[in-house]
Amino acid sequence: MTISVWRYSHFALAVSSFLFITLAAVTGIVLAFEPITGKMPSYKADRFDELTLAQTIPALQPSFKSVTKITVDAHQFVVVQGTDSSKQAVEVYVDPGTGKVLGKPAKQHAFYQWVTALHRSLFLHEAGRFFVGLAAFLLLLIAVSGTILVIQRQRGWKRFFTRIVKEHFAQYYHVVLGRLMLIPIILIALTGTWLSLDNFHLLPEKKITHRINEDSIKEEPALQPADFPLFKQIRLSQVQSVEYPFSEFPEDYFMLKLKDREIAVNQFTGETLSEVVYPMTKVLSQLSLDWHTGRVSVIWAIVLAIASINILFFIYSGFVISLKRLANRASNKYKPEDCRFIILAGSENGSTMGFAKALHQQLITQGEKAYFTELNNYKVFPNAEHLIILTATYGRGDAPANAKRFSSLVKKYPQQQGVHFSVVGFGSHAYPDFCQFAFEVNNLLSVQSWAVPLLEIHTIEDKSPDQFNQWLVTWSQKTGLTGIALPETLRQKPAGLETMVVVEKTEAAHADEPFIVRLKPSWRNKYTSGDLLAVYPANDYRERLYSIGKVDGLIQLSVKLHPEGLGSNYLYQLAPGDRIEARVVPNPHFRFPAKAPAVIMISNGTGIAPFLGMIEQHSPATACYLYCGFRYRASFVPFAAAMESALANKQLSGLQVAYSREGDKQYVKDLLTKDAGFIAQTLAQGGVLMLCGSLSMQHDVVEWLDTICQAQNNRSISFYQAHGQVLMDCY
Q1: In terms of CB atoms within 10 Å, which of 76, 107, 404, 491 comes out highest?
Q2: Strand partners for 385
Q3: pLDDT digits over 573-623, tens only?
Q4: Which residue among 452, 486, 520 closes a domain?
Q5: What is the distance between the alpha carbons of residues 355 and 340, in angstroms, rounded to a whole number?
Q6: Are 272 and 227 a contacting pair, CB within 8 Å?
Q7: 224-263, pLDDT tens digit by residue?
Q8: Is residue 318 domain-shared with residue 334, that is, in the same domain?
C-alpha cells in the first residue's frame, strides 16, 4: 500500500532499529531504578541548598585530621576524602553543616554494573557503543517523524492534544501515549545521542587550562577559608568538587569545579587566581548524563522508567498496526478488465481497506467477478458495471496517500461505458473536515458523463460496523444481490420492532406522485425530524427507509408511489387504524442546525417530509427558506395549508415552489438560479443548506451549487459539506 513519506520513514526507522531499541529500553527500565535505590538511605543535608563553602569547610575540620577533596555527587550527597583523627585514609558521607560522618559510599552493585555495560555497549566494546548510539539517534528520528504524523492526523499543531478517534486498541494508545511520552522520549534519545558523540570525541573539544603566574601569588593579607568572599558566595548546590591544596606552599591552591566553570583560589587570601568557563559542549555533556540516567531526581527517574516501558509498548503496537495494514492489502482472484464490480479504497492507516476487503470477499463468495485496489490504481475498466469507492479523509480534508492521484486519473481515463457509482466516506465528527475527500470524490464523479449515481454518498462515523451494514443492505438491494452474505443479524427482520398505528394516509394525485402517511408511535419513542423510519414490507430482512417529519407529535412520511415499489405499495395500501411494525433509525447528520443564521431547504415532493417537521419545530429566530419542486399543482395541495401557516407564523421566511409539468414548467434548479447570489451569500455567512429528495435532483443541484460557490465564494461545495453547511439525505 502506498503511504506517505513520513509514515514510510517512521515505519522503516522502527523496523531497522527495533532490536537495539528494545534492548536499550529493557535495560533502561532496570537502570531507572538505580537512582531511586541510590537515594536510600538519604545522606542529603536538610539545609543543603542554603549552605555555602564558607560554612562547610570549617564545619569539617573537627571531624578530620586532613581533607584532600570534597565531592558533591549527583544525589547532592557530600563526600569527603581525607584522613580521620587516627590518620587513617577515609572516604565518607558527611553532613556539610556539622561535619558529622553519616556513612560510607558503596560501590555500584554488580547487577547494575552488568546492566550498565549491556545498556552502553552490548558487551561489544566500541562497536557496541556505536550501535547503541545509532539506536538512540534513530529513536530521535522516530519520535520526530511520529510527531509530524500526529500533527498531520490532527490537522495542525494547535490541535495536537485534541481528541483522538479510537479505531482499535493499538492505534489509539500508540497515538495517545506517544503524545504524553513525547518529551521524555525525545530527551532520552537526544541525550543518548549526545553522550555517544561525546564518547567518540565527535564534539568540539576545548582543553581546560589554567594560566597562573606563580610569582605573583600573594600570601597577605591571610584569611581563613570561612572568610573568603568567594566561598561566601558559592553554594554547595553549585559545586561538583573542591580539591584542597597539597601543601602550604603558595603555588598550591584550592581548585573549585562548579557546574559551569573551574576556579583556582589562593589558599591564603581567597583571591581568584584563575577562572575558566567550561565550553558549552562540556556543560551539555554533563546535563545529558544527568538527565539520561535520571539521577537529577527520583521523580524524573520514575518518568524515565515509564517512558522506557512505553517504548516497548510502541514497538508492540507499531507492529500490530503494521500487520493490520498489511492484512488489509488487496488480493484479487480476477483481472480488473474481466470484473463487473470494481472496489476502490482510500486509506492512510489501513482501517478503511478492511471494510473494502470485506465487501470484496462477500462478492467473490457470491460468484461475482470483483476487483479490489487502491484509488491511485484507477484506470479504464472495460467490463465494469459498478464502481464502489470507500475512502477516508486525511489531514485538513485531504486525500489519503493512496488516493492522491485519483482526481487526475478520473479526468485522464474516462470509462467507455455507463458505470453506476457509490461512495462511502469514513471519518469522525471530532474533526471539522468530516469526510471532505469523500464528498469531493462523489462530486467529481457526479459530473462525469459516464458515471451514474446508484446511491447518495453515505458517511460512516468512527468506522461503525452498524452504519456500514446499513449501507451494505441498501446497496445490495439496489444491485439486486439479495443473496449477498450479510451478517446474520441483517438477514432477518430485526427483533424489538415497535408497533405504530396509521392515523392518516392521503391519495396520490397522479402516478409516481407523493402521498402522505401519518403514524402514531408509542410515547416512549424518541425521534425528531430528519431521522429515518425503517419498515419491513415483506416481513423479512428487506428494509426500506423513509425520512421522518415530526408534525403535531406524529411521524409524517412523504412517499412516492412506484407501481412496482415494494415499500411504497405496502404503505399505500394502509388505512387509518392499521398497525405496522417499524423502527426509528437516528440520523444525527441530517438535523436542523442548532446554531445557524439562516437555513435553506431544498426538496422535491418526497423529500419535503422532514422539512415540514423542522419548520414546525424550529425557532423563528433562525431564518428559514424552502425551495421545493413538484410535477403538478395538485401534488402540492396536501402540503399547502402547513406552508401557509408557517409563513403566517414567521416560522418560514420564504417559499418557492416549482411545477415541472404545468404552468411555467420549472425545476427546483431554476428557482435556485434566480436566487444564486442569496444562496452563495448565505453559505459564506455560515448559513446551512439542506437537501432532501431524489438522487437525480441531488446530482443537478450539487453540480449547480459547486459552480456557484466556486464563482462567488471561491470555495468548492466540498468545503461546505465537510464543515457541516451542506447536509443531504437523498435516495
Answers
A1: 76
A2: none
A3: 999 999 999 988 888 888 899 889 999 999 988 889 999 999 988 877 889
A4: 486
A5: 19
A6: no
A7: 999 999 999 999 999 999 999 999 898 899 999 999 999 9
A8: no
Q: What are the b/e assignments for 87-104, b being 16+ CB within 10 Å? A: eeebebbbbbbebeebee
**Sole residue written with cell 587513617:** 88
Q: Containing domain of residue 243, as a range?
A: 58-95+216-276
The CA distance from 517 to 638, in Å, is 11
Distances from the Cα of 341 to the Cα of 415, 685, 695, 703, 711, angstroms: 14, 42, 21, 26, 36
* Look-up of cell digits 575558566: 276
Q: Where are the extended beta strands (E) located within 428-553? A: 451-453, 458-461, 498-505, 514-520, 532-535, 544-547, 549-551
Residues 299 and 428 in one domain: no
Q: Are strands 101-103 and 89-94 parallel, antiparallel or unpaired?
A: antiparallel
Q: Nearest 5°: phi and psi at 6?
A: -70, -40
- Span 484-500, average pLDDT: 62
Neighbours of 312 (CB within 10 A): 15
DSSP SS3 for 529: coil
Say which amino acid occupies 616: E
**Grid coordinates representing 577?**
387504524
Which of 460, 486, 512 is where one domain is finished? 486
Same domain membership, residue 394 and residue 337: yes
Spatial distance between the Cα atoms of 202 and 129, rounded to a whole number of angstroms: 13
Q: The cell 598550591 sits on which residue? A: 252
pTM for the model stands at 0.54
Whole-number Å distance between alpha carbons of 286 and 191: 10
What CA–CA distance (Å, rounded) separates 398 from 413?
22
Which residue, 64, 59, 57, 102, is CA-closest to 83? 64
| Residue 341: Cβ-neighbour burial (10 angstroms; 0-12, 13-18, 19+) | buried
Same domain? For 394 and 430 the reply is yes
CATH number for 720: 3.40.50.80
Tell me how far apart the alpha carbons of residues 145 and 167 are, in angstroms, rounded to a whole number: 21
- Which residues in 292-308 are b (16+ Cβ under 10 Å) and which e? bbbbbbeebbebbbbbb
Q: Do 525 and 656 have their domain in common? A: yes
Fill in the DSSP letter of residue 50. Answer: T
CA-to-CA dists, residue 406 to 337, 541, 614, angstroms: 18, 36, 38
Helices of type H across 278-392: 280-293, 298-327, 351-365
Q: What are phi and psi for residue 425, nearest 5 degrees?
A: -105, 135
Q: What angle do CA 400, 586, 592 make, to 5 degrees?
A: 85
How remote is the C-alpha of 123 from its chain's centroid? 40
With b for 16 or more beta-carbon neighbours within 10 A and e for fewer, the 185-214 pattern comes to bbbbbbbbbbbbbbbeeeeeeeeeeeeeee
pLDDT per position as a tens digit, 357-374: 888 988 988 889 999 999
- Report the domain count for the chain: 4
Pairing between strand 239-243 and 253-258?
antiparallel
**pLDDT at 218 exceeding the cut of 80:** yes
What cell numbers appear for 569 in the block? 405499495
Q: What is the CATH number of the domain that holds 457?
A: 3.40.50.360
Do 264 and 346 reside in the same domain of the chain? no
What does the alpha-carbon distance between residue 415 and residue 490 come to, in Å, rounded to a whole number? Answer: 34
Please give the C-alpha separations between residue 593 and each of 486, 599, 664, in angstroms, as whole numbers. 34, 8, 33
CB atoms within 10 A of CB 174: 21
Q: How many angstroms separate the first and last alpha carbons of the chain?
A: 33
Residue 289 banded pLDDT, cuts 50, 70, 90? very high
The residues that bridge with 277 in the sheet, in sequence order, are 261
Helix (H) or strand (E) holding 625: strand 623-630
* Of 543, 542, 572, the residue nearest 557 (C-alpha): 572
Shared-domain flag, residues 412 and 511: no
